[in-house]
Known about the structure:
Layout: H1 3-15, E1 20-27, E2 33-40, H2 42-56, E3 64-69, H3 70-76, H4 78-82, H5 86-93, E4 99-105, E5 110-119, H6 128-132, E6 157-163, E7 167-174, H7 176-183, H8 188-194, E8 199-205, E9 210-213, E10 219-220, E11 226-232, H9 233-238, E12 245-249
Parallel strand pairs: 1-8
Antiparallel strand pairs: 1-2, 2-5, 3-4, 4-5, 6-7, 7-12, 8-11, 9-12, 10-11
Amino acid sequence: MKLYKLLSFSFLIATLTSCTVTENMYVNDNGNGKFSVDIDGSSLMAMAGDQLGDQMGADAKKNIDSTFTFKQLFEEKKDSIAKLSPESQKELKKLENYTVNTKMNGEKKEFLMAFSTDFKNVNELHDVLQSLSALQKLEGAGSPATPFGNGLGNNNSNLSYSYDGKKFTRKALIDKQKLAEKAKDSSADMSKMIFASSSYTIKYHFPKKVKKVSNPSALFSEDRKTITIQYPFTDYMENPDKLNFDVEFEK
């Protein structure tokens, strides 16, 4: 299965059902670390795996364990990318260092998808799902709608992270102009229905003990170095600034 076809097929599964999206971050003492966004759409496989296989054809019935980089995918689609606007090309460029791993097993009723990367500083990171929404443009004008066009990740905000050893901040700034345009989009209600039972979980691992988190819903690990916060996916889509918070560390 070609890389873009696999990615499109995988996203179609993720957007057909309730799924759990987990944003994982591991920060080291020197500020570098690992980051991933993990999507678990196993509930669809459990409920309708056989029917899905019948609808999607032979590829859907195969057990898949695939790993590739966006750099490979962009090489495959370089001619299409060259035709995109500079803005879209810039958005896709943000994904270049990410690795994609997809696991699908019909017998185990399992569907897992992960986008991961290493970083030198947390301020390099961005909203992966937002960048993924730009992939819909690779198909070209007049092409059938792709799974990336259903609104997944397009929450009309700019996400940034900062960490100086004393404080960590996750902050999404809403683009009011894009938000107003989205309000006129008739597909917004459909996206809301699709993601109504999905969740967005943040799980961050720090090298120091956490003193306090500005979000009162945060759960702490026993050693207070890991925090977990769960939100409805509709908050991520409609009110991304609700996922903003600050973390202060013990001295």
